[in-house]
Design goal:
Blueprint lengths: L3 E7 L3 H12 L5 E4 L15 E2 L6 H21 L10 E5 L2 H16 L5 E3 L1 H7 L10 E5 L3 E2 L2 H14 L3 E3 L4 E6 L5 E5 L2 E10 L5 H6 L8 E10 L3 H10 L5 E4 L4 E6 L2 E6 L6 E2 L21 H10 L1 H5 L2 E11 L6 E5 L2 E8 L4 H18 L20 H13 L23 H6 L2 E6 L2 E7 L17 H14 L2 E4 L3 E7 L3 H6 L12 E7 L5 E11 L2 E7 L3 H11 L7 E4 L5 E6 L3 H6 L16 E6 L2 E6 L8 E6 L4 H12 L5 E2 L2 H10 L33 H10 L3 E8 L14 E4 L2 E12 L4 E9 L10 E5 L2 E8 L9 H4 L1
Parallel strand pairs: 1-2, 1-11, 2-8, 4-13, 11-19, 22-32
Antiparallel strand pairs: 3-7, 4-6, 5-6, 9-10, 10-11, 12-15, 12-16, 12-17, 13-14, 14-15, 18-19, 20-21, 22-28, 23-26, 23-27, 24-25, 25-26, 28-31, 29-30, 30-31, 33-36, 33-38, 34-35, 34-37, 35-36, 37-38
Helix pairs in contact: 1-5, 1-10, 2-5, 2-10, 13-18
Bound molecules: flavin-adenine dinucleotide.
């Protein structure tokens, strides 16, 4: 065994093996994998081997595509059979909503280069004769679906990695991890200690325990999962004889079942409603290539549906039943990347579909480790999307919810109830009394909209316009014509202070830092010149700043800041969480409301747009910024949480003479679209550059900052694509607005995708933001269409915000 190496990958399942392979492929060959038993001994060996390209997140779809395409390559390079079967797959719909979902999935597939086809149920029956037509109304056919042998795949990765110089130590268990002052690791195993620059936690079923070795509680939980394999079936033999093809795979959403051919019989698995977590607190270390007792009673309701939908299955004998555990994160996507504040500790775990995703996960992590950036948009699986709120019990509730909803639609306006309410601000009860409809982001409850008095505060879930539509329209009108009040605690807030802060931040930000008492907007880039952050920066001292950014990215951004802090620096970086909470007043009467409760002059001459100062509001010490995401005259008022209720009551009373209304996140999204304001995660992500995103006014080349050279090079050659702003004509009979991820068509071809959409209630227009090739973004380009639920709707390119392009309302 080596005494030292560059990387130790902990875990020899399909994911660890893929990470090892991709590290060697990226040129890091002094790398080691340690496995406590045999390769695949965790959840990999008993996987059903199924693989699909579709995923709710288009970027994860891309990784799944990559994974499936990789198998031929590693099979050829290793000489190890992966037993690749690609018979294609059917997704079967039983109702209109699922058909809509399939159409939207097909549309998304268009810009991902996927060849997906909507087919009739008669066509589906011809491909998959076991199904009973009367239970279905249509299907989506994906030619690139199939299954592989999980053990073959793991060994193929391992052989390729070994051939490139990697070493694999089986029967070697990591017992502890110790970090040296220089950030390197002592990996203490039962066979000796290896000193490594980096460690990767690919511990699968034991990822939690490998996390605990460094004091981490990763949000990952194993669930029991059952599939059965039938005896040989004559219907299968007849199909193979007649067509010469294997049966395609089938996903039956209504039945919550997946099916595929396994030799002469069929394999049927289900995500049962009566689901059971496995080892919810601690995974036993003596669990080795074991299965769990088969429990067909638990899946009896799903089996009943299966036998109705596929009658031949009901009479086939059952050859074997597999019940095995595998891991999930709360949203079902993997946890990948470095950990905030823990140098050189990487995770690649909670991979629930290791055969669909393992290749992409390995590629992303290896690229991140070797090049400092994953090289692709992996936001949907970045471990940093969870914060401290994702405790063991929260993870348990969310994973169980997610497992049971695996084959259910989550509508774009749907809020899932498990693990809520958990994280609330002090005015939660106040807003609930005002009939708030709540949503949760990054664990925190925030008001989406306020139902009318006397009506139930519940939103109908739909792909189209919901019961919230007319109510949100009123909220928007209140802001634009009078004044609105909303909670803005769901921003991430940071305080950065101490000697050298200004110089340090300036080296991270594209825009100039603001003067004392002022706010500026800035982007933050990686060395490749891509957007890793977008912030409002408020200066309250020479070396004292507040930063406001996306709450969902709080861990992601603080990881970046902490990683870039100079060693031993006196600079203090703090994520403020709910130690600072906020309310925002916006609208033409906002100044009148706030002025009535403060002695500080808010006249524009004294408190102009983009001012940020300490102000007493009533008796409450607050920081007040003259800014709002609504694009109107407005103020954000930030206070310690113990003052928030008093602040709310004070402002609410002060607003009465002006008929102030509460407004929520939905109205805010409509208002910001009307002003063409982009947002993190949608328009601003690490795959876009600031030139592509139209952030030109955030860029000042009068100082050095990370990513500047790449930005200048891009300025010289021009951006490849550009963010465009479109007015879309919804279907007049069944109006539906753009949500995000819809394809943008031009001249009969898909040229781009939508990042955000909303109905701009005040201006009365349905809007979209999205990316297209730069050549098509020129003003005057005509002929755009956006595909909404299977219908291509005409879209007009706009060059300015539909409301107040000069920004005079904000500055009034
Ligand atoms: C019944 C069933 C059916 C499934 N069907 C499919 C399917 O059709 N398609 C699909 O894509 N996925 C399927 N899966 C999921 C798939 O099995 C997992 O996604 C995959 O196995 C995850 O691989 P992994 O490498 O992350 O974890 P694991 O396979 O659990 O590997 C982790 C490895 O780490 C080792 N390890 C842990 N801690 C240490 C330590 N301290 N020291 C040394 N070694 C350590 C373990 O021994 C283990 O071998 C199925 C799972 C089950 C249970």
């Amino acid at each position: 065994m080596k005494a030292s190496t560059q990387v130790v990958v902990i875990g020899g399942g399909v994911v660890g093996a893929s990470v090892l392979y991709h590290l060697t492929k990226a040129g890091w060959t002094d790398v080691v994998l340690v496995e406590r038993k045999e390769l695949t001994a965790g959840s990999t060996w008993h996987a059903a081997g199924g693989m699909h390209t579709l995923n709710g997140d288009p970027n994860v779809s891309k990784l799944q595509q990559y994974t499936i395409q990789l198998y031929k390559e590693i099979e050829a390079a290793s000489g190890q059979s992966c037993s690749i079967h690609l018979p294609g797959g059917l997704m079967l719909a039983s109702d209109r909503e699922r058909m809509d979902w399939l159409r939207m999935a097909q549309a998304r597939g268009r810009y991902l280069g996927m060849d997906l086809e909507i087919i009739s149920i008669a066509e589906a029956k011809a491909l998959f004769p076991l199904l009973e037509e009367k239970y279905f109304i249509g299907a989506l056919y994906d030619p690139v679906e199939g299954h592989v042998d999980p053990t073959g795949v793991t060994n193929a990765y391992a052989i390729c990695a070994r051939n490139a110089g990697a070493e694999i130590y089986r029967h070697t268990k990591v017992d502890a991890l110790g970090q040296r002052p220089d950030g390197t690791w002592d990996v203490i195993t039962d066979q000796g200690t290896i000193h490594a620059e980096h460690v990767v936690n690919a511990g699968g079923l034991w990822a939690r325990e490998v996390g605990r070795m460094v004091g981490l509680e990763l949000p990952v939980l194993a669930m029991e999962h059952i599939y059965l394999v039938t005896e040989d079936m004559p219907e299968v033999a007849a199909h193979v004889a007649a067509t010469g093809n294997e049966m395609p795979m089938a996903l039956d959403f209504a039945g919550e079942i997946y099916i595929r051919q396994e030799q002469g019989g069929m394999l049927l698995g289900t995500y049962e409603q009566a689901n059971v977590p496995w080892s919810p607190r601690e995974t036993p270390w003596d669990f080795n290539m074991q299965l769990l007792p088969p429990d067909l009673d638990r899946i009896a309701p799903e089996l009943e549906v299966a036998f109705r939908h596929y009658p031949a299955m009901g009479v086939a004998g059952i050859k074997s039943v597999v019940n095995g555990p595998f891991t999930f994160s709360p949203d079902g996507n993997p946890l990948v990347g470095p950990i905030r504040g823990l140098r050189n500790y990487w995770v690649a775990c909670a991979v629930m579909a290791g055969l669909s995703q393992g290749g992409g996960v390995g590629l992303a992590l290896a690229t991140w480790m070797t090049e400092g950036d994953p090289g692709m948009d992996i936001w949907g699986m970045d471990v940093a999307r969870y914060g401290d709120y994702a405790t063991l019990a929260y993870t348990n509730a969310k994973v169980r919810e997610n497992y049971g909803r695996r084959f259910r639609i989550t509508f774009p306006n749907e809020e899932l109830p498990a693990g809520r309410p958990l994280h609330t601000t002090p005015i939660y009860d106040r807003l609930t009394e005002h009939n708030a409809v709540w949503g949760a982001g990054f664990g925190l409850e925030h008001p989406l909209w306020f139902q009318r008095p006397g009506e139930t505060p519940v939103e109908q879930v739909t792909f189209r316009r919901s019961n919230a539509f007319p109510v949100v329209a009123e909220e928007c009108r209140a802001v634009r014509e009078r004044v609105g009040l909303t909670e803005c605690s769901n921003f991430a807030k940071y305080r950065v202070s101490g000697p050298g802060t200004a110089e340090w931040l300036q080296g991270l930000f594209t825009n100039r830092l603001p003067a004392h008492g002022r706010v500026s907007l800035t982007a933050m880039l990686n060395p490749q010149g891509r957007i890793v952050g977008e912030f409002s920066v408020a200066r309250v001292g020479e070396d004292d700043f507040f930063l406001f950014g996306s709450q969902a990215a709080e861990v992601h951004h603080s990881r970046w800041f902490i990683d870039h802090l100079p060693a031993g620096s006196p600079i203090r970086f703090r994520a403020l969480g709910l130690s600072l909470v906020g309310l925002s007043v916006a609208g033409p009467k906002a100044r009148d409301v706030l002025q009535s409760v403060t002695a500080t002059s808010l006249a524009t001459a004294d408190f102009p747009f983009m001012t940020f100062r300490r102000v007493d509001v009533g008796m409450i010490p607050a920081w007040v910024g003259r800014m709002t995401y609504s694009g109107d005259l407005g103020y954000e008022i930030w206070v310690a949480p113990e003052y928030q209720r008093a602040l709310f009551d004070l402002l609410w009373e002060a607003g009465r003479p002006h008929d102030m209304a509460l407004f929520g996140f939905r109205a805010l999204m409509s208002l910001r679209m009307e002003k063409m304001f982009g947002t993190w995660y949608r328009e601003y992500r690490p795959i876009y550059t600031p030139l592509e995103a139209g952030m030109d006014r955030y860029l000042r080349l009068d100082h050095e900052f990370i990513g500047r050279a790449a930005l200048e090079a891009e300025m010289a050659r021009g951006p490849e694509r550009h963010l465009v702003y479109l007015a879309v004509d919804p279907d007049p009979d069944e109006p539906a607005d753009v949500i995000g991820d819809e394809p943008i068509w031009h001249d009969g071809a898909v040229v781009g995708w939508v990042t955000s959409g909303a109905y701009a209630h005040y201006s009365g227009v349905s809007l979209a933001l999205g990316y297209v090739p730069a050549g098509l973004a020129a003003p005057g380009t005509e002929g755009f269409e956006v595909e909404i639920i299977g219908h291509r709707r005409p879209a007009r390119l706009l060059t300015h915000p539909v409301l107040d392009p000069a920004g005079s309302r904000m500055r009034a």
